Amino acid sequence: MQTSEVSPFQPGLRERNKQQKLERIRQAAWELFHSKGFEATTTREVAELAQIAVGTLFLYVKDKQELLVLIYDEAIEKTMETAFSTIPENATLLDELVHIFGSYFRFYHQNPELARAYVQALLFQSKPGQRQQAATQIERFSKRIAERIVQAQARGELGLQIEVGQACRNFFALYSAALTGWLSGMVGYEETVNSLLRRSLELQIQGLLPD
Amino acid sequence: MQTSEVSPFQPGLRERNKQQKLERIRQAAWELFHSKGFEATTTREVAELAQIAVGTLFLYVKDKQELLVLIYDEAIEKTMETAFSTIPENATLLDELVHIFGSYFRFYHQNPELARAYVQALLFQSKPGQRQQAATQIERFSKRIAERIVQAQARGELGLQIEVGQACRNFFALYSAALTGWLSGMVGYEETVNSLLRRSLELQIQGLLPD
DNA sequence: GGGTTATAATGACTATACTCAGTATTGAGC
DNA sequence: GCTCAATACTGAGTATAGTCATTATAACCC
């Protein structure tokens, strides 16, 4: 066999093996989590399906939760792109926000058990590495929300005096609360998405002061 | 030995034994969680200190997390009472809210690791029994927040058109988000309590509309 | 107080996430 | 192509949350 079939400046065999293994892990975890559920899937099963030893699995992921993050990251990215690229034209900020957050809800709705574990992992990450990742993800999302807020200001829909960053944080907080309320089973999906979310955001925009 | 030393209509020996055991469990868990931490304490240790078998422990508590809820319930109750009974006179609603939520933050600040596990357990409870308990607790809290809102309306500080229930939910959502942000290590304690919380609540009251 | 039933307690056992001392593979210098 | 250091992989082993068939105890009835 030739010593090198790949083009120059490509990563060596080691690196390629690692990439392949990571991909196999991703696929195995996706397959099992979706067919059996997160709790019901053991890490050994994932390792077996990925054709690696258990110990190897934990060289690639810190723990079982990170396996979930690994799987969801890509899908969440796509959800964000779709959400922001399908915002209806000439809509109010409220409608835009309901559309955006609603896209996430629809995504999570595809598999509530996994969503629950994933959101929990994101919101309560203590390990520095994962925490940083979660923070970055929220950051990028907030940036795009901020754009919509600025545009709404330009339309004269929102006041110019408001702190955009704070407004983003508040919107995200209201979304998070709606999400956890639903995922923990306290409120139904339909009620959350069709009613509570909108009213919550609306009240933030309106404020509470007398007319 | 006499057959009955207790007054009539009192619970029998069985019931008293159960109460004593529960109390011993509570004390054992409190002692160990505070001296060693939640993660570092094993359920066997709790059982041993409470002088019962492991199996018995799980007759009283569904899982390790419920052990934490058992301990915190009383303290949280006290925190709520203190928070509401020490509201400063003639303050604005914003100051009242900062005082109330701040009381909780100060309480949780005494032991962030336990607080983290506890809040996580509360917000992500799937077991119906515990979920119901969490919902009830939030409900009672919201009722008392609602009172303050109505009084603020009476003072003319807030509009009469607002939905009080929705306003409560939004305040609670903003508080929860601030709390999880701190507990997951994304934001520091001082910054959260002294700055972010107030600005978040303030923006909800003010709203985002143009002047 | 003896017999019977219902309830409570027990601890050996199971299931499973994660570790780590030992082994194998890769790549670089000669 | 050989040697060796660095890196990657392995799977038996460990720790621990939670279970369940068995045993003990309390309550009740005659």
Q: What report would you give on this structure?
A:
- The structure is a homodimer of 211-residue chains.
- Helices cover 73% and strands 0% of the residues of chain A.
- In chain A, helix 1 (13-36) packs across helix 2 (43-49) and helix 5 packs antiparallel against helix 9 (189-206).
- Chain A has nine helices and no strands.
- The first copy, chain A, has 211 residues and is an all-alpha fold.
- Chain A starts with 12 loop residues before the first helix and ends in a 5-residue tail after the last helix.
- Residues 1-8 of chain A have low confidence and may be disordered.
- At the A-B interface, helix 6, helix 7, helix 8 and helix 9 of A face helix 6, helix 7, helix 8 and helix 9 of B.
- Chain B binds a DNA duplex (30 and 30 nucleotides) through residues 12-14, 17-18, 21, 42-44, 52-59, 62-64.
